[in-house]
Structure formats: structure tokens, C-alpha cells
Design brief:
CATH superfamily of the largest domain in chain A: P-loop containing nucleotide triphosphate hydrolases
CATH class of the largest domain in chain A: Alpha Beta
Strand content of chain B: under 5%
Largest interface: A-B, 35 and 28 residues
CATH superfamily of the largest domain in chain B: MetI-like
Oligomer: heterodimer
Number of strands of chain B: 2
Order of helices and strands of chain B: HHHHHHHHHHHHHHEEHHHHHHHHHHH
Number of domains of chain B: 2
Largest sheet of chain B: 2 strands, antiparallel
CATH topology of the largest domain in chain B: MetI-like fold
């Protein structure tokens, strides 16, 4: 049984000047098995936070259902759902110390004092806040406040743990450290988690499942590797990582043609004649001084330390952004130099050409 | 409809909203409607315009209207000018004794609004210390335009001062520095930078004082006299003197119109144009716009005003212990004996009323602010508007409205404690609501969502999370309600009865009977009570909000 199921969830907001309405989320369907960390990923305004808030109960869906297990909770108010949410601003209660913040939810359940104290102290230890129990929030750093918010949720032992862009207010280094901690904690406790972020690196590094959203629609659901290597739409391919998009001709379900050459691709169901593009990741293309499928001219080569970022102009194919690994060993390339390019190792994905969309 | 369905699942909240709407409808809207309706009727209940026609025929009414408007305008101008100088001196100039000056200027706010009238009688009345004894004038009459203006300037300058203080503090002095740097003279910098920036605040203060002056009942009643009719006392006289409710109601409506207009202008037009400089932090650094001699002139004016205020209160204090002012200056306790003996019922009643009104007003204010800012439901804007409406309605109109509304079926409340409590609660919670709304808007809504997320329903969230966070607004609402309940007169004078009397009404009665000594004794006692309460509340508040540790649930 899935801990969380979303069925045809839709949310409309009335338009600002009374004209029509804004569709924030359109027909979302999702199933989340127990213990997985699902990330809702997408650009600002894609509806991921609205979706999260519908799960938490802070927004009422215009239509559709939210199920916890097999129970329909769509009309349950937020205080009656078994969810715990870490807010973007942490939302620590400023008038309570750390202990009372973390104990807040337990006190509402009227737990016996001793059991409550034990649980709170255990969670404070797990989240690295041992010894901070008596501190007031104004005496905490951003990272510590975040941990308090996290501890306050975990101590509730909720069915669902929800995160609303929890790391966006932290500096880069802290962000990297915290996302690892959050993931490890989540795996250790085995809590089903829904995580919202616009940072794709964050999403891919911690998730079991990634849900890519755009303008209220769910575009693709899959593992981080699925999303990265086998995007099913131009949007997803373009949103995640860097990509080259080369217009191609469909030969059949496994092959396409670019620059006059046949390339093997991921299985797809576009018909011959349908305008498509093949997506080539910069690290998947190879540059060689000796041999390759195509020949091209170097337009730009920037030494970035761990890669040599090149732009190579390949006639009849296009401009390819290529990352050459281990540039110290490879050596440098001069602008205008002729090189051989094998556009892709492995099977690239095929997506529709953007003009093909209405 | 969705909103309603959601509400239905938080039944306590739904019940609360319905109760509040019903209460507002009954105690705010219904009385006003009755006033309007009655003004269009004859005494027999027939619909007519004759009450309003009187304004075109009877000189008395035209004069009353004109007088009230002229006094209002004059008082507004003088008070705002004085208030501006005072605010400027205390916030922007480095002068000695600013703290003391500030406190003295604020004194009139915590006393009955007509205390100045009593002082003026002591000083400038027929047996006045200044007029009779010092200047030996035999037929100088302070009654009329002069007396009313003087007493109202005294009473309302602190209000203008408070308002302008906030305005001046929000203008960064760096702007003046920039003007001087470009080459402006000090006068030019003031005229072209400081003054324009403070103009919306000045306009706002002008309107506020104008409204207060129009609505003022106590001072005109004491000092206007028979030859200087004014609207508020005239409405009162029509009802209590001639028992002509329709005419009184018509006068009340005429009184209401400029008040509501000024309120609307102030709220919807001026507040849109407030210029707050980017820093937002209060700036109290010294202004360089004022040369030394000018600075000391301004300071002198301020000190003079402070001395005047102190003198007024000193006179009251002395008068309370003087056997017969103007004739026998021996010290005596007889007035206080009267207060604690015959007059003690009034003291007791006033304290009871204040004790009930204060917490009710504070809590309702915070709850309504919470609902307006944090919850969506049909009629939310209406709720906000109605609960603030009473603030703009002159007390006289409220008083008349209440006796019209609750003197007969369906709800009979006249002569009871309930009518006093209702009138006060619904008038004074407006300030609490506005403060609460302002404070709530600064609190991150996620904090309350977090509480709900952890299992708290609306009422629990309000109690355990919101209320502690808006404590400052809550406490100031309590102080405001208490002070107003203790010093109210305009509405109260219609609502007192044999069973329930108030100290303020007693003071007026004593003044009317010529017993200034007793009036002074009541006033002294009243002020002392208010000061004690404010001190206690301040103590409580600093203890309650100083905690950095846990809060017991």
C-alpha cells in the first residue's frame, strides 16, 4: 500500500481582477510507496508548493483526492492530518525555547511528561541539538533553527514528512551538508517524505523518486537517473542539467539520423517524419584529435579545472557543447582547431522538437 | 461556498464568526440605523423631513453647526502646530528634559477629556484665580469660543503630538543633510524636504483632531455657555432636556457626517500617501535645520506648553483640597470625604465597568484582528469595516443610538450594566483591532501554519502561538480600553442610570452644581487610578514578554 496517493488533484485560484482563474495544479497523479523520498522539482510557479500544501491540508483542492494509505483525507483540516512540515522560513515559535518548540505537538497530544521528555531529548540528540534545549530561537543560527524545525517534525513520528524548500535560506556549504544529513536521517527513520525544491542537484542527490513539474503539470516521474538519462519531454531534458538538442530524422523506433549518419537511440514512439530532437549531454559526447564519427571546428574551449568545456561546430549537425574530462591529461584545444567528434556514447534520448508543441 | 465548507469543519471558528457578526450587527449597526431612522420621524413616528428642515429655519441649529465646525478647524490648526513643534523638539533637537516634556505632554491623554475645562474654570472662571484675583477682572467671561478652544487645544494637542512624533521619526535626517549638501538654506531644506514629507502625517493629524473636536462633549458642555451653542451638547439637550428624540437624532446625524467624511479621507486617501523613508527605522538624530536661536524659541514654546499642562493639573490637585475656591483657600479633606462617602457608588460602578470592559475589549480586539488577517471567510472585509466603524462615530451619536435601540423591544438594556459595557467594548476595541492587524501582518503566517500542522486547531493556535506574539498590541489595547472606559463621557452620559453611575458623569454634575472642589477631588482620584493601573500593566507586560524560557501551557 502506498503511504501517499494523489488522484487527479487540481487547484484553481480565482484570477486577480476577476478575470478567469489561475490553474496552479492540473490533474496531478502520484503514488508514493512507504519509506521513499519523493521530490517535487520544477521552476518557480510550477505548482510544486501548492501541491505540497494540498497534501498538508493548507490548500483545499478544487477537485481530486488525497489519500493516506487507503484513507481519503481530502477534506481533513491540516491539524488532523498525520503530516509534519518543515517550512521554508522554519517557522520556529519565537516565544518558546528549543525544548518547548520541539515538544509543542506532543504537548497537544497530552503525552505523559516523562515519555514526552524522553522522546524530545532523543530527537534533539539525533538532530545534533543535544544541549540546546534551553536556548531561545533568537540565539540560534540559521542552520540550528533548521534543525529545530526538523526535530519538531520528526518527534511527531508522522506518516508523512514534508519539506518546503528547507535549504534555500542557507549558504551553499551548509546546504550541501544539510541535504546529506536530511537524507541520511530520512533513510534511517524510514519516514515517507515529500520534498519540494527548485534546485535540481539537490533533488537528484537525495531522492528516490523525482517528480518534474511545469506550469501546474507533472511532466515526468522517475528515479534521478531516469530523469537525467531518459527524459520524456523537451522540458524535462532542458530543465535538468545541460543538454545539446540536435534536430534529427526518425528512421525507426531505435534509430535516428543526424548529419547524414545513423545513431542508435533510446526506444521511442515517434513516427518517421515527426520533428524530433536528440538530446546529447555534454559529458556523453567525445572529442578526439584522431578519429570520430564527425569532424568539426573548435569555437571555444574553457579550462574549468575538472573539465574542458568546449563548443564545437559540426557541419550538418550543429553546435555541440562538450565537456572533456581530465583536461590536464588531454591537453588544450585551440580555437579553430579541427577535431573529431563522436556525438554520443551510449543511447541518447529522443524528444519532440519544441515547435511541434502547440 | 468552498470557504464555508472549510469553515464548517472548524466548528468553533464558525461559531465565533457568527457570534461576532451578530454582536456587531446588534451593537454597532442597529443603533446607527435607529439614529438615522428616528431622525426622519416625528415624535409620533410619522416619516418626515421636518427635523432636517429645522436647519434651514432655526438659527440655533445653524449657529450650532457653524460653531462646531469653526471650533473644530481652529482647534485642529492650533493643536497640530503646537504638536508639530513639540514633536520636533522632542525627536529632533537636543534639548534638556525631553523625557520629562514628553511625559507631561502625554498627561491629558490619561485623564477625562474635560479636566481642562475644570482647570480653566478654576483659573479663568468667575472666581478664577487669574481672572478674579490676579487680574481683578470683574466681568471677563471665559465661556464661549475662547474657553472651548482653549480647553480643546489643551486636550487634543497631545494626540496631534503623538501622531506627529511617529511621522517625524520616520523621516530620515539624511534627507535634510542631502538638501543642505546641495546648497539649500536651512529654511529651504525645511520647506522643501521635511515639510512635504511630513505633510500626509500633518493632514492626518489635522483630520483626527478635527474629528475629536467635533465629537467632544464635555468641554463644550462646561465652557460653551448659552450664547455659544454647539452640536454635541445641543443634541444632548434636545434629548435630556426637551425629550425630543427625533431632533436629537437629526443633530446626531449632522454631527456624524463631517466625522465620517474626515475619517474616510484620513483612512482611504491620506494613508495611501504616507511617505516612509526606506530605512523604516525610527530616526531620532539631531536635525541641523534649526539654528540655535530658533531652537531655543521652539524649545521655549514647548516648555511653556508643558508648564501650562502642569499648571492645569496642579490647579486641579490644589482645588481638590481647597474648601471653597475663590473664597476660602483653607486646606480640607471634605471633598474627598464626599467622594468616598456619597460618591463612592460612582467610583465602584466605574471600576466595575472598567474591569469588565478592559479584558473583553482587548480579547475581542485581538480575536477579530486574527480573523481578519489570518482567516478567509465570506464577509471578511465587512467585518473589518464594521468593527472599526464605531471608532469614527462620535460618542454622542453612539449614546443616542443606544438609548434609541435598547429602550424598547426587541432588546431592552437601558439602565443596566450591560448597556454601558456594550457601548464601551464596541467603541474601544477598534483601536485594539487596528493595532492587532498591524502587528499580525508582521508575523510570518507559517508560524501559525506550523502550529496547525502539529495538531492545533484555530482556537488553540490563537491561544498558544498568536496571542503571545501579539502581546504588545494586546497590552496596549488593554491600556487604551481601560483609560477610555474610565474617562468616557460623551456616550456615557446617555447611558448612566440610578443603578449605574460613572465618575465622569459625577464630575460633570458637580461642575454643573458649582461644586468645583468635589469635581476636582473626583478627577484626582480618577487620574490616580488610571496611573496605578497603567503602571501595573506595564510591569506585567515587561515580566511576561521578557521570558526567554518556557511558557507554561
Amino acid at each position: 500500500m502506498n503511504d501517499l496517493t494523489l488522484r487527479n488533484l487540481r487547484k484553481e485560484f480565482p484570477g486577480h481582477d476577476g478575470t478567469g482563474s489561475v490553474i496552479a495544479v492540473s490533474g496531478a497523479n502520484l503514488e508514493v510507496p512507504r519509506g521513499t523520498l519523493v521530490t517535487l522539482l520544477g521552476p518557480s510557479g510550477c505548482g510544486k508548493t501548492t501541491l505540497l500544501r494540498m497534501i498538508a491540508g493548507f490548500e483545499e483542492p478544487t477537485s481530486g483526492q488525497v489519500l493516506f494509505g487507503d484513507r481519503d483525507v481530502t477534506s481533513d483540516p491540516p491539524n488532523r492530518r498525520d503530516t509534519a512540515m518543515v517550512f521554508q522560513s522554519y517557522a520556529i515559535f519565537p516565544h518558546l525555547n528549543v525544548f518547548d518548540n520541539v515538544a509543542f505537538g506532543l504537548k497537544l497530544q497530552r503525552l505523559p511528561a516523562r515519555e514526552m521528555r524522553e522522546r524530545v531529548e532523543r530527537v534533539l540528540d539525533i538532530t545534533g541539538l543535544g544541549g540546546y534545549a534551553k536556548r531561545s530561537p533568537s540565539q540560534l543560527s540559521g542552520g540550528q533553527q533548521q534543525r529545530v524545525a526538523l526535530a519538531r517534525c520528526i518527534v511527531m513520528e508522522p506518516r508523512l514528512l514534508l519539506f518546503d524548500e528547507p535549504l534555500s535560506n542557507l549558504d551553499a556549504k551548509l546546504r550541501e551538508q544539510m541535504r546529506v544529513e536530511i537524507r541520511e536521517l530520512q533513510q534511517r527513520l524510514g519516514i515517507t517524505t515529500v520534498y519540494v525544491t527548485h534546485d535540481q542537484v539537490e533533488a537528484m542527490s537525495i531522492s528516490d523518486i523525482v517528480v518534474v513539474m511545469d506550469s501546474g503539470h507533472i511532466r515526468q516521474i522517475g528515479s534521478p537517473e531516469d530523469i537525467y538519462a531518459r527524459p520524456t519531454s523537451h522540458f524535462v531534458a532542458d530543465f535538468i542539467g545541460k543538454a545539446n538538442f540536435i534536430p534529427a530524422e526518425v528512421i525507426d523506433a531505435d534509430r535516428i539520423r543526424i548529419g547524414g549518419r545513423e545513431i542508435a537511440v533510446q526506444p521511442h514512439d515517434f513516427r518517421p517524419g515527426h520533428p524530433v530532437q536528440v538530446m546529447i549531454r555534454p559529458e556523453a559526447a567525445e572529442v578526439s584529435r584522431e578519429e570520430g564519427l564527425f569532424t568539426g571546428t573548435v569555437e571555444r574551449a574553457m579550462f574549468l579545472g575538472s573539465v574542458l568545456e568546449c563548443v564545437v561546430n559540426v557541419p550538418d549537425v550543429g553546435q555541440l557543447l562538450i565537456d572533456v574530462p581530465n583536461p590536464v591529461a588531454f591537453g588544450s584545444l585551440a580555437v579553430g582547431q579541427e577535431v573529431h567528434v563522436t556525438p554520443v556514447t551510449g543511447l541518447p534520448a529522443v524528444v519532440e522538437r519544441p515547435e511541434a508543441r502547440a | 461556498m468552498n470557504q464555508l465548507k472549510r469553515l464548517a469543519r472548524d466548528p468553533l471558528l464558525l461559531a465565533l464568526i457568527i457570534i461576532i457578526f451578530a454582536a456587531l450587527g446588534l451593537f454597532v449597526v442597529y443603533p446607527l440605523v435607529k439614529v438615522f431612522a428616528t431622525s426622519f420621524q416625528t415624535r409620533a413616528g410619522v416619516w418626515t423631513l421636518e427635523n432636517y428642515e429645522l436647519f434651514t429655519t432655526r438659527r440655533l441649529y445653524q449657529t450650532a453647526l457653524r460653531n462646531s465646525l469653526v471650533v473644530g478647524g481652529t482647534v485642529a490648526l492650533i493643536s497640530v502646530l503646537l504638536g508639530y513643534i513639540l514633536a520636533f523638539v522632542t525627536t529632533r533637537l537636543r534639548t534638556p528634559g525631553r523625557g520629562l516634556l514628553h511625559m507631561v505632554t502625554m498627561l491629558p491623554i490619561i485623564s477625562p477629556p474635560f479636566v481642562s475645562a475644570v482647570s480653566i474654570l478654576f483659573l479663568f472662571g468667575f472666581n478664577g484665580l487669574v481672572t478674579r484675583h490676579l487680574l481683578q477682572l470683574d466681568d471677563f467671561s471665559i465661556y464661549g469660543f475662547g474657553g472651548v478652544v482653549l480647553s480643546q487645544v489643551f486636550t487634543f494637542t497631545p494626540i496631534a503630538y503623538l501622531s506627529l512624533r511617529g511621522v517625524l521619526q520616520s523621516i530620515s535626517p539624511t534627507l535634510e543633510d542631502a538638501a543642505l549638501n546641495i546648497g539649500a538654506t536651512k529654511l529651504q531644506a525645511f520647506l522643501k524636504v521635511t515639510l512635504p514629507l511630513s505633510l500626509p502625517g500633518v493632514a492626518s493629524a489635522l483630520l483626527i483632531v478635527f474629528i475629536e473636536s467635533l465629537a467632544d462633549f464635555g468641554n463644550p458642555l462646561v465652557l460653551a455657555g448659552a450664547t455659544f451653542p454647539m452640536l454635541a451638547p445641543q443634541a444632548y439637550l434636545e434629548i435630556t432636556g426637551s425629550f425630543n428624540l427625533p431632533r436629537g437624532a437629526a443633530l446626531a446625524v449632522i454631527l456624524l457626517i463631517p466625522s465620517l467624511t474626515a475619517f474616510a479621507i484620513q483612512r482611504y486617501w491620506i494613508s495611501r500617501r504616507q511617505y516612509v523613508t526606506v530605512t523604516g527605522k525610527p530616526s531620532t538624530s539631531t536635525s541641523k535645520l534649526v539654528s540655535e536661536p530658533v531652537k531655543w524659541i521652539l524649545y521655549g514654546i514647548s516648555v511653556l506648553f508643558g508648564i501650562l499642562v502642569a499648571a492645569f493639573y496642579l490647579v486641579i490637585l490644589v482645588g481638590a483640597f481647597t474648601r471653597v475656591w475663590g473664597f476660602d483657600y483653607t486646606m480640607t479633606l471634605q471633598h474627598f470625604r464626599y467622594v468616598f462617602d456619597v460618591g463612592f457608588n460612582a467610583v465602584k460602578d466605574t471600576l466595575i465597568v472598567a474591569a469588565i470592559v478592559t479584558p473583553l475589549s482587548g480579547l475581542m480586539g485581538m480575536m477579530i484582528a486574527f480573523l481578519v488577517v489570518r482567516r478567509r471567510f465570506p464577509g471578511r472585509q465587512l467585518l473589518e469595516f464594521t468593527s472599526i466603524l464605531n471608532f469614527a462615530v462620535p460618542g454622542t451619536v453612539v449614546g443616542i443610538g443606544y438609548i434609541l435601540a435598547f429602550n424598547g423591544p426587541p432588546v431592552i438594556l437601558t439602565g443596566t450594566l450591560a448597556i454601558l459595557v456594550a457601548a464601551f467594548v464596541f467603541r474601544y476595541m477598534s483601536v485594539g483591532i487596528q493595532n492587532g492587524i498591524a502587528v499580525l501582518r508582521q508575523i510570518d503566517p507559517s508560524i501559525e501554519e506550523a502550529a496547525q500542522n502539529l495538531g492545533a486547531d484555530s482556537i488553540t493556535t490563537f491561544r498558544k502561538v498568536t496571542l503571545p506574539l501579539i502581546a504588545p498590541a494586546f497590552f496596549s489595547a488593554l491600556v487604551y480600553a481601560f483609560v477610555r472606559a474610565m474617562t468616557a463621557i460623551s456616550a456615557a452620559i446617555f447611558l448612566v442610570s440610578a443603578n449605574w453611575n460613572l465618575m465622569t458623569v459625577q464630575i460633570l454634575n458637580q461642575v454643573g452644581s458649582g461644586r468645583l472642589g468635589v469635581a476636582a477631588a473626583f478627577s484626582v482620584l480618577l487620574i490616580v487610578i488610571v496611573v496605578i493601573f497603567m503602571g501595573l500593566l506595564n510591569l506585567l507586560m515587561s515580566r511576561w514578554t521578557r521570558h526567554s524560557g518556557s511558557v507554561r501551557f
